[in-house]
Structures are given as structure tokens and as C-alpha cells.
Design a protein that fits this description.
The protein is α/β, with parallel strands linked by helices and about 400 residues long. It has 17 helices and 13 strands.
Length: about 400
């Protein structure tokens, strides 16, 4: 038995934030019915063709779901949606601003008819306020939330390499839905959940915001290094590879000087005697570290760091992560089916074994339309008529 066995989720979703949220619910056993536009579906299906013709984002966020095509603007679609919602626990949507309200899918419109239904809206800026109707994409929210101001090199800001604003919003939607299910168990009532990408991202920005509290100087853009701790970040080794390392306290600084640099006198140099002084003198200290590392291979640098119990890592490429020895040793890769054959998928964090989680296929567009409509009592002739009219 999965934790969310018996929970039914209807989702009008696209891109990343809502699909990532509902995939977590599906992982835990919920039945997730994904409503897609006839003919084209979730536009993330067409982002790229990198997974044997399927889009990388779509494969990642949509396993274990049922795909039903439905033109939600067509009058006959309303009856289908009503029947689906009448027996569902959760509605999730991240349509364009105002679209759900125009379709009669707001919490206020639904609560009287379906008092147990939890309605989760995911948007760029939230359901009210002056930014409510603005379009929002991941990069725009990273920028609006100040993330770009602290990320990148001193000369150029940089966005995160994956969709962190979407991921943040998706995870806050997921956890709020779980909390709402627990609350409903006590009250018998569903509730509205309003998750914004901006608020999710600003929560993640709380450390640099507090660091810049009341007009203080914010963290500088420091590339892959840490803006406020040093040495912390990437350093080249003599074999051309890069080693990441991080020091957290003065005890580790002394060990780093003694066992890694093998220059114990630097530990008591007045120029480097505290973290704030090392940050201020980072260029002078970096020159020393790079000079020492230039005589060593990356394996030798890591061996010294391990001996000194200094945290470190290799700067892996994607191919390295696919083949990561730790993931292999912990058996974190499993196989899921898809329209293009079996694909590898990572077990969700916190899950011990494949039997503890739902890892069903990635759906083809509209793959489950006929089966779901048949469950609702539609005959094959009725389904053919709906299909002929491009309603499904």
C-alpha cells in the first residue's frame, strides 16, 4: 500500500511547476489524471526531443499519470470535468492567470458543490496583488526574486541551470496538498491553496536577504565559489580537472593549511586569521592554493582533503552523474516504461525500495482518454462523437 492510495487528483497543468507537484503525488500512490489539450497536449511535450524523441522535461515530470485529452473550453467538456471532480480529492492547475476562474474552477465556485475538494492554484505571482496577471517563467522569477543578483560572476549574472523557481513552487504545492489532506481528515473539508513561484523563490532567498538586512551589503556574485566563506568552491588541479572544497570553521582551516597545503604557517598569518579576513584576501589566498594544487592530480588533491577531513567533491558532468558510484551502490536507478520504451528513473529521495513507490509509465498524449470516459459511463459511440468534434 502506498501512502496516497485511493486519492484522486485532477490536474490542468503544463510546463514544470504543477507537473512536478503532481508527479510527487503520483509517486506516493495517488491516481493523477492529467487533462491535456487535444492534438498538442502539455506544451512541455514539445520542448525538445532528447529522450528518444520525447521531451526531457516531460519525461521527468509526468510518469505514473493518466493522460486525458479534453478541450476544457467546449461546452460538453464541462460535464466531463464535473463528473471527474465529483469523485476527486484534489484539483491542481497552473493555467494562465485568470483562466481557471473563467472556466469556473476557482475554489469559491467549486466548494459548495464539492466541499471535500482541495483546490491548489500555482501561479507566478499569486491570486491577487498588482503582479497577479503578469506572465511568469522560471528565468523571470529567478530575476524578480533577486536570485540573479547573487549568482554568476562579478561581471555577469547567471541563472540556475535547472528550473529552480518551478521546482520550488511545485514542492511547496506538494507539501501544502499533503497538509490539506491531513487537515481534511480532521475537518471533512477541502481548502484553497495559493502557491506563487515568486514567494517560493523568495523563501529560498532568505539567507542572502537577511545577510543584506537593513541595507547591508548583499553577497557578491562569486561564480561557483561561496560569496561569504573562503576557501569554498572550485580549484583547478594539475591534471586539468576541478576539485570543489569547502571549509566551515577555524579548526578546518588549520587542518587545511597543515595537511592539504602543507604550509602550517599560513594558518596563523594575520592576513588569513578569520573567515572574514580570508574573504577579503581571497585573491591572495587563491593564488597560494592554486600554486600548490598545480603540482598535484585531482585524485591527489582529494586524497589530501579526505585525510584532513575537509569536505570536497568532483565537478561532475551529466555523464558522470548517470554513472555515479554512490547512486549505483544504493540502487537508486530503476526503469519506467514510456511510449519510446523503457527509460531509467531515479527513485524519489527518501524511498527505500521500488515497491514503496509508484513508478508507472510516462503517458502518451490522450492515452487514457477512452478508458477514463468509459469509467464515467460514456459509450464508445459517445466517445467517437466527442473525438470527431475535437472535444477529446
Amino acid at each position: 500500500m502506498k501512502p496516497l492510495d485511493g486519492i484522486k487528483v485532477i490536474t490542468l497543468e503544463h510546463a514544470i511547476a504543477a507537473p512536478f507537484c503532481t508527479r510527487q503525488l503520483a509517486d506516493l500512490g495517488a491516481r493523477v489524471i492529467k487533462i491535456e489539450r487535444p492534438g498538442s497536449g502539455d506544451f512541455a511535450r514539445a520542448y525538445d526531443e532528447r529522450v528518444r524523441g520525447m521531451a526531457s522535461h516531460f519525461v521527468w515530470c509526468n510518469r505514473s499519470k493518466e493522460s486525458v485529452t479534453l478541450d476544457v473550453k467546449a461546452a460538453p467538456a464541462q460535464d466531463i470535468l464535473d463528473q471527474l471532480l465529483a469523485e476527486s480529492d484534489v484539483l491542481v492547475q497552473n493555467l494562465a492567470p485568470g483562466a481557471a476562474d473563467r472556466l469556473g474552477l476557482s475554489f469559491d465556485a467549486l466548494h459548495a458543490r464539492y466541499p471535500k475538494l482541495i483546490v491548489c492554484n500555482i501561479s507566478g505571482y499569486g491570486s491577487d496583488g498588482p503582479y497577479r496577471d503578469r506572465k511568469a517563467y522560471d528565468l523571470l522569477i529567478q530575476s524578480e526574486a533577486g536570485f540573479l543578483s547573487i549568482t554568476g560572476s562579478p561581471d555577469s549574472p547567471a541563472k540556475a541551470g535547472c528550473s529552480i523557481a518551478d521546482i520550488a513552487a511545485g514542492m511547496y504545492a506538494y507539501t501544502n496538498i499533503l497538509a490539506a489532506l491531513l487537515q481534511r481528515g480532521k475537518t471533512g473539508l477541502g481548502r484553497a491553496i495559493d502557491v506563487s513561484m515568486l514567494e517560493s523563490m523568495v523563501e529560498w532567498m532568505s539567507y542572502p536577504m537577511y545577510y543584506a538586512f537593513e541595507g547591508a551589503t548583499p553577497p557578491s556574485r562569486a561564480g561557483a565559489a561561496h560569496a561569504t566563506i573562503y576557501p569554498y568552491g572550485p580549484f583547478p588541479a594539475g591534471d586539468g580537472k576541478t576539485v570543489m572544497l569547502g571549509l566551515q570553521n577555524e579548526r578546518e582551516w588549520a587542518l587545511f593549511c597543515e595537511k592539504v597545503l602543507r604550509m602550517p604557517g599560513i594558518a596563523v598569518d594575520p592576513l588569513f586569521q578569520s573567515n572574514s579576513k580570508r574573504v577579503a584576501a581571497r585573491e591572495a589566498l587563491r593564488k597560494i592554493i592554486v600554486e600548490v594544487f598545480s603540482t598535484l592530480s585531482s585524485d591527489e588533491v582529494i586524497a589530501r582533503l579526505d585525510d584532513a577531513q575537509i569536505a570536497n567533491s568532483r565537478m561532475n558532468e551529466m555523464a558522470d552523474v548517470w554513472a555515479h558510484a554512490q547512486l549505483e551502490a544504493r540502487k537508486r536507478w530503476v526503469t519506467v516504461s514510456s511510449p519510446v520504451g523503457d527509460l531509467p528513473a531515479l527513485l524519489p529521495p527518501g524511498v527505500d525500495a521500488p515497491d514503496d513507490v509508484r513508478m508507472d509509465p510516462v503517458p502518451g498524449l490522450g492515452e487514457h482518454t477512452d478508458a477514463v470516459l468509459a469509467e464515467l459511463g460514456y459509450s464508445q459511440d459517445s466517445i467517437r462523437l466527442l473525438r470527431a468534434a475535437s472535444i477529446v
